[in-house]
Amino acid sequence: MPFIEIKGVSYVYPLREGVSLKAVKNLSLSIEAGEFVALTGMNGSGKSTLAKLLNGLFKPTEGEILIDGVSTANEERIFDIRRRVGMVFQNPDNQTVATLIEDDVAFGPENLGLPRDEIIKRVNFALQAVGMSEYRKRDAAKLSGGQKQRVAIAGVLAMRPDVLILDEATSMLDPAGREEVMGVVRKLVEQGITVINITHNMEEAALAKRVVVLRKGRLAIDGTPSQVFSSSLFESCGLTLPPAAALAKELKDSGIDVGTVTTEESFAEGICKLLR
Ligand SMILES: Nc1ncnc2c1ncn2[C@@H]1O[C@H](COP(=O)(O)OP(=O)(O)OP(=O)(O)O)[C@@H](O)[C@H]1O
Ligand SMILES: [Mg+2]
Question: Pocket of ligand 1, candidates 47, 170, 200, 202: which has the most ligand atoms within 8 Å of its Cβ, to mutate?
Fold first, then answer.
């Protein structure tokens, strides 16, 4: 059984008397434990709504979402689902609750009512996992954007989640911060955590094993980065190829085939192969 099962899910925002907006439409999708998925699509395509459905913040208007076999509509299990499906958001400045970094990371486990030594163990583990151990006594407000997002990820990891959802977590960061965060994500994926990275950035999407594209609340494309980038639906989803893939496509159109290109690395490999 897949770890995450989305079965015929729709979600409707009630706007005002007699007016509503269907943000997610009859969506079915499964994600296995340990998968690294990028979720993309135009503004308003339903990505954030889906994220909030996955961690039980919203309940499906129709259909059902199962996390490890448990429905997100099951109120008795909702705290466990929220703990197991952790989220990191866009704005690095909105996510700290304490001044001191270690207190910030301890906040979640403290709210679980865990014993002191277990909290300490988890804070140590989480700070280590994001490479922020040496900053534990520092003021969270003084960190760079990338460091703040790494601390936010640590706060989620301290809850020992199964799934980490990043909702545009790198979009307010500079390239260095973006790289820092994606480095941490890559490491977490290697350690077996399931990651869903919501992003508009196709270079970032290309780092995932699987890319899911939403269009107007519906599933439009689902495949490997190279399958998605070469899909005939890609442009109609309002997306543009990452620079390396766009260049490879132009070269191919003029008769130079560098092979399947999703990232700068695969572009370089393709060029090297051609030269040999
Ligand atoms: N709280 C809300 N109340 C009413 N409508 C909402 C609410 N949040 C989102 N919507 C609408 O639901 C649709 C999906 O929005 P959602 O935020 O899920 O899209 P998104 O793919 O995350 O977009 P973005 O890329 O801009 O973050 C949009 O039409 C949006 O205007
Ligand atoms: Mg969003």
Answer: 47
